[in-house]
What we know:
Blueprint: H1 20-24, H2 33-42, H3 44-49, H4 54-60, H5 63-69, H6 73-91, H7 96-99, E1 109-112, H8 128-143, E2 147-152, E3 160-163, E4 169-172, E5 184-185, E6 195-200, E7 203-214, E8 217-223, H9 231-234, H10 245-265, E9 272-276, H11 282-293, H12 298-306, E10 309-312, E11 323-325, H13 326-337, H14 344-349, E12 359-361, H15 362-368, E13 372-375, H16 378-387, E14 402-404, H17 411-414, H18 417-426, H19 448-476, H20 481-488, E15 499-504, H21 520-527, E16 534-539, H22 547-560, E17 569-572, H23 577-586, E18 589-592, H24 604-610, E19 614-618, H25 621-626, E20 637-640, H26 648-651, H27 655-682, H28 691-704, H29 710-753, E21 758-759, E22 774-781, E23 790-800, E24 803-814, E25 820-825, E26 833-840, E27 855-856
Parallel strand pairs: 1-2, 1-9, 2-8, 9-10, 10-13, 13-14, 15-16, 15-18, 16-17, 18-19, 19-20
Antiparallel strand pairs: 3-4, 5-7, 6-7, 7-8, 11-12, 21-22, 22-25, 23-24, 23-26, 24-25, 26-27
Helix pairs in contact: 2-6, 8-29, 10-11, 10-13, 11-12, 12-29, 19-20, 19-23, 23-24, 27-28
Amino acid sequence: xTTTLSLETRPTLPPALARLDELAGNLAYxxxxxxxxxxxxxxxxxxxxxxxxxxxxxxxxPQAVLEQFAxxxxxxxxxxxxxxxxxxxxSSGAGADVDAQLDPERDLVAYFCAEFGLHExxxxxxxxxxxxxxxxxxxxxxxxxxxxxVGLLYRQGYFTQTIDAQGRQQANAHTxxxxxxxxxxxxxxxxxELRVGVEIGERDVQLRIWQARIGKAxxxxxxxxxxxxxxxxxxxxxxxxxxDSDTRIQQETVLGVxxxxxxxxxxxxxTVWHINEGHAAFQILERIRERVAGxxxxxxxxxxxxxxxxxxxHTPVPAxxxxxxxxxxxxxxxxxxxxxxxxxxxxLGLGVDHNxxxxxxxxxxxxxxxxxxxxxxxxxxxxASRMESYLWPQVSATENPIRYVxxxxxxxxxxxxxxxxxxxxxxxxxxxxxxSTDHWQCIDSIAYDRYVAVRRQLKRDLLTDIAARVRxxxxxxxxxxxxxxxxxxxxxxxNSKALVLGFARRFATYKRATLILKDEARLARLLNxxxxxxxxxxxxxAHPKDQPGxxxxxxxxxxSMKPEFIGRLIMIEGYDMLLxxxxxxxxxxxxNNPEYPMEASGTSGEKAGVNGVVNVSVLDGWWDEGYxxxxxxxxxxxxxxxxxxxYWYSLLGDEVARQKRDEEEAKQLLGILEEQVIPTYxxxxxxxxxxxxxxxxxxxxKTLIPRFNAARMVMDYVRGFYGPAARQTARFTADDCxxxxxxxxxxxxxxxxxxxxxxxxxxxxxxxxxxxALELSVGARLNGLSPDDVIVECLIGxxxxxxxxxxxxxxxxxxxxxxxxxxxxxPLPGLQHLRVRIRPIHPAMSHPFELGAAVWA
Length: 857
Ligand SMILES: *Cc1c(COP(=O)(O)O)cnc(C)c1O
C-alpha cells in the first residue's frame, strides 16, 4: 500500500498586515466595501477566483505579494483606513432607543433560523428567508442590539445552479471546506472543541459549534459531521432543504434542541428568543424541558418559556410550513418527549392544527409556544391572522394576536458603491439618518447629470457582467459561436441606452416568472422596437424537487433562444447574492408579479428601489405599502392591481379562474410597460433617462430608503416585540417563576370554567335624547370565575353590511355580587350599534386575546 500525504503551504502575514486575518474573519466585509477593497487590491484575479472570499485569498496569496504590500504606502493607507473605520464601528454602543427596550446588562436576543444569507462566501442560504435573516443580523450589529443568532452549518450548502443546453436546471452539490469559510470552531477552556449532544431516535448525536462574526453580532452554527457520529447522523446537516421529511425533522431537532444546548455551552443566557420561521420551533420544547428538569410543572414551564418568545411566520405557501407525523415525532423525538412529566399526547397536542389528526405542525407549535407573533407585511399579517385563527377560536382574525413587521433590507449591503460615494460627498451624516424620511429628500438635490451618470455606470457594469456570464454558460453547453454572439449582442455593445428589465428570485410557481410570456408576440414587439429597445434578464433557482419551478426555467431558456427573443430575453444561471447585488443595482426596472396574496413580503424589489431602480410590481407584500401613486412629487414606480383580492380565496382549486386572472394581470403588466414605462423612460427624443423617468427613480430612492431598510425593521422588532418579550421574561421568571405559576393556574381555572360563562341580552333604551348618557346593564354567568377574572365591554360602532366596525370600546363595572355589569356611556351621535362581550383578563397577559376566549351577549 502507498500512502499519499497532502500538504498545503500557506503564507504568513507580515506583522504590518497582521490584522488582515481579523478583517477576513468578520462578515463586516459583506457590507463594508473598504474592507473588501483591501483584499481586492492584494490580487484582483485571485479575489475573483476565490469568489470574493477574503479568508481564501489569504490562504492562497503568494508570500512575496504580501511582503511587497507590507511596504506599499498607498496600500497601507487603504488598509489603515479600513481598520480605523472597522474599529470605530466595533466599539460603538447601542442608541438610546435600543437601551430603552433592552438592558445590555441583562437582556440578550437569540435569533434562530434554518438559513442565513450574509455573503456569497458563506453559502448557507437558499433565498429570501435567508437573506432576510442575514440582513436582520447586520442591522442588529449596526444598532448595537444585544444579540446572538443560531443556525446550521451545511457542508454542501444550497446547490449551485447551471442550466444546460436544453434549459434544464442542473443542481450541483459542492462540498465546502469549513476551513475556507469565515467561521471558527468554538472551543472550551481546555482548548478542546466544544460539543453538545442531542438525542435523536436511539442515538446521541454529537454536534460541533462554529462561530461567525457579523460585525458586533455572533452567529453560532451547528454541524453534525463529526467523528463518533455514524454515517447517517453525519449527513443530517449536509444539505439545506435537502433529503426528505425524516431528514427535515432531524435537522430541525439539531437546530432547535441543539441550538439551545449550544447557547448554554458557550455561556449565553438569552432573555428573548426569536424563532424565524417554524423550522426552529423545537427550541420551545427544549426550553420547556430545561425548566421541567429544574422542577417546574409542564404548564408553568410553558408559560415561562412562551412569555419570552417571538415567532415570525414568513409565507402562506403550504411548503413553508413543516408538518410531521406523530409516528415520526415518536421515532425521532421519543426519548426527548419522555422528559416532560406529562403525557405524550399533551406534547403532541402542541402541534395539532385545525386539520387535527396525527400531524404535528411546526407553525402551530411555534404559535402555542410564543406570545409575540407576526407576519412580514401588512397584507401578510392579515393573511396569517386568518390562516391561524383556529388558535383563537372565539376571536375575529382582525383582533387575534398576529401582528406584522414589514421586511426591510440591509442598505449598506445592497446599495451600490457609486451611490454611497456620492452620499459621502454630498450628504454628511447620512449613515445616522437611515430612518428619516425628511433627510432622504436630499436625493432631489443630486444634479440630473450626476444622477444619470451613476445609473448609466451601474447598468454598464451589469451588462458587462451579464455578457460574460452568458458567454460562459453557452460555450460550456457547446452552443455555436454564431449563436453566442447573437445572444450577447445587445448586452455586449457597451451601449447603456436600452431599457433593462430584471426579474430574479427563487422560481417558486406562485411568483409566476413566465407571466410576461402570456402574450409572446406583444412582448417580442416591445423588446425589439428599434427606436426604444429593451432587454429582459431573468435569474433564479428552483428547488431540486420542484418540477413545475424547473419547468419555468426551461420555458424561459427556450424562449430566450427563439429568433425573436435571442439577445433580448436572457435566462442567466447561477443566481446567488453576488448576481443579486449586480442585478438590483444595474437594472432600470425591477419586475415582480406574484399571485396575490402569496408574496408575504418580497425584498428584492426593496433592494432595487433603494438603488433608484423603478419597481413594476403587483400590489402585494411590501409594495402595497411602498408604492406611492401620486405623492407630492408624483409616483415612485408602477403598480399592477391584483384582480379582486377578496376573490383569491375562491380561486383555490379553480384552474379556469386562475388562468383568467393570470391573463388579465399579464395584460396589465404588458400594458404598463408599453404605455407607461417605455415611453416615460425614453422620453420624446428616445434618448433614455428622460427627466420624468429620473424623477420617478429619485422618488423611489427617497421614499423607499428610509422605510424599507433593515434598521427600520429591527427597530420595529425591538420596540414592539423584543422589549415587551424581555419585560415579560423578567416578570414571569422572577422569584422562581412566581408569576408563571399563578398565571398558569389562572389559565387552567379559566379554561375549566369558560364553557359555562355567558352574558344575557343587555338592557338599553332604543332611543335617547341627545346629550343623555346611555345606562347599560347586562346580567352575567361567571360559572365560578370572579369578576376580577373577566372584563365585560361594550363595543359601539356602525354596520357595514354584515360587518361591525368598532368605533369605541367601553368597559362595564361589576355590580356588587358579580352577576351583573353596568356602565354609563356617552353615545355617538345618530344611529349606532352596540355589542357586548365578556373575555378573561389577567395582568400577566401578553395580549388581550391571548386565550382566544370571548363570548358575546
Ligand atoms: C433578495 C434575494 C431574494 C429574495 O427575493 P424576492 O424577490 O423577495 O423573492 C432571493 N435570493 C437572493 C439571492 C436575494 O438576494
